[in-house]
Amino acid sequence: MSSPDLNLLITLDVLLAEGNVARAAQRLRLSPSAMSRALARLRETTGDPLLVRAGRGFVPTPRALEMRERVSQLVQDTEAVLRPAETPNLKQLVRTFVLRTSDGFVENFGPELIARVGEEAPGVRLHFVQKLDNKDSVLLRDGTVDLETGVVRNTLGPEVRVQALFSDRFIGVVRAGHTLSQGEITPARYSAGRHIYVSRRGDEKGPMDEALSSLGLEREIVTIVNGFSTALALARASDLIASVPERHTGNLRAGMHSFPLPVPTPPFTISLLWHPRMHADQAHRWLRSLVQDICAATR
Predict the structure, then answer these.
(1) Distances in Å between the alpha carbon of 47 and those of 11, 61, 134, 151?
(2) CA atoms of 215 and 205, how far apart (whole Å)
(3) Model confidence over 87-136: pLDDT tens digits?
(4) Residue in 178, 165, 167, 192 with CA at minimum distance from that of residue 259
């Protein structure tokens, strides 16, 4: 048994609404002969005359009367499915978004983001999860994570959408009153201090150590931690020196002394990442725009 031509639904809807073959043809911009052929196909498909002559006009059959409201609703539902999604009513939106973020992002940008979401869409909840060593795109692809922030890596799937948020750089941070809070900070003076090294993979040295080594200097790394917030907490309560991203840790460094590193380290770009299947989702697009606005405004 062949499948029915679903395009006939639109013709049937107009025929039943107009109750007149000529007016239906005009509305559908069909010739009288094309309209007659369409009606013949509908009669064959449904097994019912649908419209029969009564004097100079037509009257619907009982089957046509029975179908009229249902057919109209089917056409309306189909048109709704196929038209572009409307902008959601944010005040009525109820949804949880999962954001996998780089270290320090929530502490620095989270308060403003949560406040804006609460103001614009009070039914939306943000679930922040910290990015650890897993930096591939599997969680974005399978829908476990809606949005991600961080440095784009080679392990990222080629299909993932990327939007640059801001450029960041590493700076040095010590407690207020530390000896490095006064005077010029030279490479020798910096390397003579006791340092905290941040590494989620357990590395013992990084680009800073390579830069110092090229000058014939070596710093003493007293402890290794897996997050910048931990490094700053230790530096705030001791004479240890932390090296952290500037933009990512603005709020966490309040009351501490920050300074440019005495040797050059390359800047890096923090980006927003999402899977293409969410690209056209209107609520997702609103959240992406919100994250971009807050990152651009927070200096």
Answers:
(1) 16, 12, 60, 63
(2) 16
(3) 788 999 999 999 999 878 898 999 999 999 999 999 999 999 987 655 56
(4) 178
Q: Which overall architecture, per CATH, does domain 90-168+269-297 show?
A: 3-Layer(aba) Sandwich (3.40)
- Categorize the per-residue pLDDT at 152 as very low, low, confident or very high, splitting at 50, 70 and 90: confident
pLDDT (tens digit, 9 = 90+) per residue, 177-225? 999 999 999 999 999 999 999 987 777 788 889 999 999 999 999 999 9
Task: Give the separation between CA 130 and CA 111, rounded to whole angstroms.
Answer: 16
Q: Give the model confidence (pLDDT) of 34-82 as tens digits.
A: 888 888 888 888 888 888 888 777 888 889 888 888 888 888 877 777 7
C-alpha distances out from residue 226 to 130, 133, 135, 197, Å: 12, 11, 15, 8
Residues of the chain with CATH 3.40.190.10: 90-168+269-297, 170-266
pTM over 0.85: no
Q: For residues 142 and 150, what is the distance between their CA atoms, to the nearest angstrom?
A: 19
CATH number of 8-82: 1.10.10.10
Residue 54 in tokens: 């009564």
> Architecture of 170-266 per CATH?
3-Layer(aba) Sandwich (3.40)
Query: For residue 241, how far is the Cα from the chain centroid?
Result: 35
Q: Where are the alpha helices (DSSP H) in the chain?
A: 8-18, 21-28, 32-46, 62-82, 105-120, 138-141, 187-191, 207-213, 228-236, 282-297
Are 253 and 172 a contacting pair, CB within 8 Å?
A: no
Residue 274 and residue 147 in contact, taking contact as beta carbons nearer than 8 Å: yes
